[in-house]
């Protein structure tokens, strides 16, 4: 699996290779272009130049919905749950990823046994059974982030993009998210995430890529990165590393 | 040629008056203030009513402007303000409801008929070889010019104008910087509504007719202008008003388009919304 | 109250039900606020009028063709929705309503302000429908539409619409292509409104441009809003109320728009979920899932739990 970018104003010649099965973190100060990178990968934005190869095929110019269907799911920095739908429906909506583009959408019911069973399993994985029938928008932020992860899992992703999965969460919730992401990764899903929380990042990332002003300034294992002088300069200079 | 340009200027001036309020409100609250059309009609109808019961024009107009401004304020404080947090459909639908209510109230109060705006304007008619501009048209041009200058001074030179512009940029941020946003919004409604009423009065004078539904078409066209000028931009709205008026006038004159001029405006808007939704001069705001 | 009068009010109620369901698919399901729904209604009516009166086609083929044309034009008029975001769409649809009515009004082919007269009533086996039979015919179509919408609201199509309405970006991220689903919504709404137009035109046997003007769109919106946006029963109840209210309040007949307007404003103020939405909220609490569905899911989840437990 490989992705390459280049020449975007927010991102300058960033090239990134994510290995199948790894957990990769992208860190960097605010405005470093991290979310832009995600938006390009999942198709919301088009890179000015460069290529993105996912699962052996180029996905530049492919609709986000089609990219999702090919096995790329994501969460959002500012949570975007389907607020007035129940948590269960949020997950069911993710399970429809293959159905939406075909005429089966006119026939299949999301409440059929097979989908409900799958959805329930995912809900159990995240430990949010208690809230399954509650409108997602009424939940506190920590639970909404879990709902987003559950919905993304329902897409049956090969690659999961998490945009600041623990921002705004307390210590307990962060620990739960660490466990969840590890569990997801063990089931064979490649994870690429953006995070400011170094506790979370160092705990689960196998490799870390550092962006600063749209440029990749370092890449390596957590140990290497925390010792890298350029990273410390760029990062500590502008941001608190907690 | 000259005649066409002058006609277009008069028409454009009427758009300016309504569009300013619409674009102010949209810029700040992101509401399509459809009930604005109701205020436009109210201004004209109420002024005519006051003239008919014997008030001198200047008093009638002043009183009508004050009442219209209050009406705008009531619409904000009494209605929109309470539903702003309910998503975008609720305030919009409410605005449509308010508009329908207002129009029908006018019909019940003042009858469905077209009425003349019979007053004497102490201005000369402009008549030359190839140009005719009635005293009422002249009045429209003069008043609009004055309004545009005053508006510019207000927005650029006063503290109030600065807070209005700040609110228009980012309401939340403006609040965080200690600007009394509620008061600014209310003020936007005051200015916008009195201008709309003034527009109604001037058009009523120019056409020498007022009627309950007179607001519908001009205000939808003012929306065209707001789109054309870039949502929320007053300068854009002013320029776009005249552009639209010129386009309409010349298309009708030279091509005798098979649809009425209003349809041209709507077609323009649909195409514009599709292909250049950020307006002619606007930057994309999302 | 004479039978004919009763039948007329019933026919109007049922046609309004179809219109309200149709608009509800756009607004309540897919979140595409259209304020020009009377245009779709008008296109169905005028298409059938032209096919039968001007081109001498029989009712049945004209029915098929007019509904098809409305769906197609619905699709076409849905095009702005693909580019235009959120409330700009409202403006575009208001514009569409005005343009369509001016075309009816100013293009000779459409009969101008005098409309098109002399539409035939449908006939079966050489027997033209009487008013009573026509009412029954409209009733059958209403049933079909209600069942169709009910069926669709239990499919992934509906969940795709829901996702689109709630958040376009998030919808894309789970595989809902927003252009495709917007087109679906506009096409279905166009088909249904076209059917309503056809039924209305052949009941009245005349069509005028004014029958499809902007205030009519407001009327349809009122039905949806008062009954409950996004519910299935709401628009039906809303349609009945809006149709019957002016009949019951005879003295208030002259105040139709005023009443619509006040109803809209106060519904938005005090119960933005409409009658049905609010009642549901009172009885079942604030759950987005129906009671039946919750029970069904519990059963399935419970069974799954036992299997996992073994």
Question: Can you characterise this structure?
Answer:
The complex is a heterotrimer of chains A (about 240), B (about 290) and C (about 300). By secondary structure, chain A is α/β, with parallel strands linked by helices. Chain A has helices spanning about 35-40, 65-70, 85-95, 115-125, 140-155, 170-185, 200-205, 220-225, 230-240, and strands spanning about 1-5, 15, 25, 50-55, 55-60, 70-75, 160-165, 190-195, 205-210, 215-220. Chain A has a single domain (about 1-240), classed as Rossmann fold. In chain A, about 35% of the residues lie in helices and about 15% in strands. Chain A has a six-stranded mixed sheet, sandwiched between helices. In chain A, β9 (about 205-210) and β10 form a beta hairpin. With about 290 residues, chain B is mostly helical. Chain B has one domain (about 1-215). Chain B has helices spanning about 1-30, 35-50, 55-85, 90-110, 135-155, 160-170, 170-175, 180-205, 215-230, 235-255, 260-275, and strands spanning about 125-130, 130-135. In chain B, strands 1-2 form a two-stranded antiparallel ribbon. The radius of gyration of chain B is 18 Å and the shape is globular. The termini of chain B are far apart. The mean pLDDT of chain B is about 85. Chain C has about 300 residues and is mainly α. Chain C has one domain: ABC transporter involved in vitamin B12 uptake, BtuC (Orthogonal Bundle). Chain C is about 75% helix and about 5% strand. Chain C is built from 14 helices and four strands. Chain C is globular, with a radius of gyration of 21 Å. The model of chain C is unreliable at about 305-310 (pLDDT under 50). The chains are: A alpha/beta (about 240), B mainly alpha (about 290), C mainly alpha (about 300).
Brief characterization of the structure:
The complex is a heterotrimer of chains A (242), B (286) and C (310). Chain A contains nine helices and ten strands.
Overall number of domains of chain B: 1
CATH class of chain C: Mainly Alpha
CATH topology of chain C: ABC transporter involved in vitamin B12 uptake, BtuC
Instruction: Report the principal-axis shape of chain C.
Output: globular
Radius of gyration of chain C: 21 Å
Portion of residues within helices of chain C = over 70%
Helix/strand order of chain B, N-terminal first: HHHHEEHHHHHHH
Q: Work out the number of β strands of chain C.
A: 4
Strand content of chain C: under 5%
Number of strands of chain B: 2
Cα(first) to Cα(last) distance of chain C is 68 Å
How many domains of chain C? The number is: 1
Low-confidence stretches of chain C: 306-310
């Amino acid at each position: 699996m490989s992705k390459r970018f280049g020449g975007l104003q927010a991102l300058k010649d960033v090239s990134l290779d994510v290995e199948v099965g790894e957990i990769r973190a992208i860190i960097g100060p605010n405005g470093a272009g991290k979310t832009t990178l995600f938006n390009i990968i999942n198709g919301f934005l088009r890179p000015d130049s460069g290529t993105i190869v996912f699962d052996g095929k180029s996905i530049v110019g492919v609709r986000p919905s089609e990219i999702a269907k090919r096995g790329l799911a994501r969460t959002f920095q500012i949570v975007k749950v389907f607020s007035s739908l129940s948590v269960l429906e949020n997950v069911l909506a993710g399970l429809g990823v293959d159905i939406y583009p075909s005429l089966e959408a006119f026939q299949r019911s999301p409440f059929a046994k097979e989908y409900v069973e799958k959805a329930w399993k995912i809900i159990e994985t995240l430990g949010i059974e208690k809230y399954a029938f509650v409108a997602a928008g009424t939940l506190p932020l920590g639970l909404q982030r879990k709902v987003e992860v559950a919905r993304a899992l329902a897409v049956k992703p090969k690659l999961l993009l998490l945009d600041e999965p623990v921002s705004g969460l307390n210590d307990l919730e962060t620990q739960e998210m660490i466990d969840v992401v590890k569990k997801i990764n063990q089931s064979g899903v490649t994870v690429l995430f953006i995070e400011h929380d170094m506790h979370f990042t160092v705990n689960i990332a196998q490799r870390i890529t550092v962006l600063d002003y749209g440029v990749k300034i370092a890449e390596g294992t957590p140990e290497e990165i925390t010792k890298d002088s350029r990273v410390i300069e760029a990062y500590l200079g502008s941001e608190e590393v907690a | 040629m000259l005649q066409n340009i002058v006609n277009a200027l008069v028409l454009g001036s009427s758009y300016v008056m309504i569009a300013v309020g619409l674009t102010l409100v949209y810029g700040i609250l992101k509401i399509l203030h459809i009930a604005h059309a109701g205020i436009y009609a109210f201004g004209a109808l109420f002024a005519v009513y006051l003239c008919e019961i014997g008030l001198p024009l200047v008093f009638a107009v002043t009183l009508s402007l004050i009442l219209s401004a209050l009406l705008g304020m009531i619409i904000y404080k009494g209605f929109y303000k309470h539903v702003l947090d309910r998503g975008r459909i609720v305030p919009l639908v409410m605005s449509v409801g308010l508009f329908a209510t207002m129009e029908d109230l006018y019909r019940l109060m003042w009858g469905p008929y077209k009425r003349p705006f019979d007053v004497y304007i102490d201005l000369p008619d402009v008549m030359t070889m190839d140009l005719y501009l009635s005293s009422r048209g002249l009045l429209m041009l003069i008043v609009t010019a004055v309004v545009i200058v005053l508006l510019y001074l207000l927005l650029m030179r006063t503290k109030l104008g600065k807070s209005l512009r700040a609110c228009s940029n980012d309401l939340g941020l403006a609040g965080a910087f200690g600007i009394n946003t509620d008061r600014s919004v209310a003020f936007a409604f005051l200015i916008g509504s009195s201008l709309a009423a003034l527009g109604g009065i001037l058009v009523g004078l120019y056409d020498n007719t007022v009627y309950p539904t007179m607001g519908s078409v001009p205000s939808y066209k003012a929306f065209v202008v707001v789109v054309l000028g870039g949502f929320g931009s007053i300068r854009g709205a002013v320029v776009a008003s005249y552009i639209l008026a010129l386009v309409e006038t010349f298309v009708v004159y030279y091509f005798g388009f098979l649809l009425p001029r209003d349809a041209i405006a709507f077609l323009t808007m649909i195409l514009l919304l599709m292909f250049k939704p950020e307006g002619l001069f606007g930057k994309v705001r999302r | 109250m004479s039978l004919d009068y009763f039948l007329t009010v019933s026919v109007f109620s049922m046609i309004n039900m179809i219109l309200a369901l149709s608009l509800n698919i756009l607004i309540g399901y897919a979140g595409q606020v259209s304020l020009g729904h009377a245009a779709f209604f008008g296109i169905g009516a005028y298409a059938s009028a032209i096919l039968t009166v001007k081109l001498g086609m029989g009712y049945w083929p004209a029915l098929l063709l007019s509904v098809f044309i409305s769906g197609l034009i619905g699709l076409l008029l849905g095009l702005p929705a693909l580019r235009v975001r959120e409330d700009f769409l409202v403006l575009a649809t208001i514009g569409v309503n005005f343009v369509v009515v001016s075309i009816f009004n100013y293009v000779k082919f459409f009969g101008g302000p005098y409309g098109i007269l002399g539409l035939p009533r449908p006939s079966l086996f050489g027997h033209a429908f009487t008013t009573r039979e026509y009412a029954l015919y409209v009733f059958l179509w209403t049933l079909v539409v209600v069942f169709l919408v009910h069926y669709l609201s239990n499919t992934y199509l509906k969940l795709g619409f829901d996702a689109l309405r709630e958040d376009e970006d998030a919808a894309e991220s789970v595989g809902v292509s927003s252009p495709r689903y917007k087109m679906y919504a506009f096409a279905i709404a166009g088909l249904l409104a076209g059917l309503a137009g056809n039924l209305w035109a052949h009941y009245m046997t005349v069509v005028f441009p004014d029958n499809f003007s902007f205030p009519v769109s407001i009327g349809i919106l009122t039905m949806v809003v008062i009954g409950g946006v996004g519910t299935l029963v709401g628009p039906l109840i809303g349609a009945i109320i809006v149709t019957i209210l002016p009949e019951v309040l005879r003295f208030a007949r002259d105040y139709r728009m005023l009443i619509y307007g006040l109803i809209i404003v106060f519904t938005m103020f005090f119960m933005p979920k409409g009658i049905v939405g609010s009642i549901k909220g009172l009885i079942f609490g604030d759950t987005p899932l129906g009671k039946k569905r919750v029970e069904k899911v519990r059963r399935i989840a419970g069974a799954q739990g036992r299997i996992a437990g073994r």
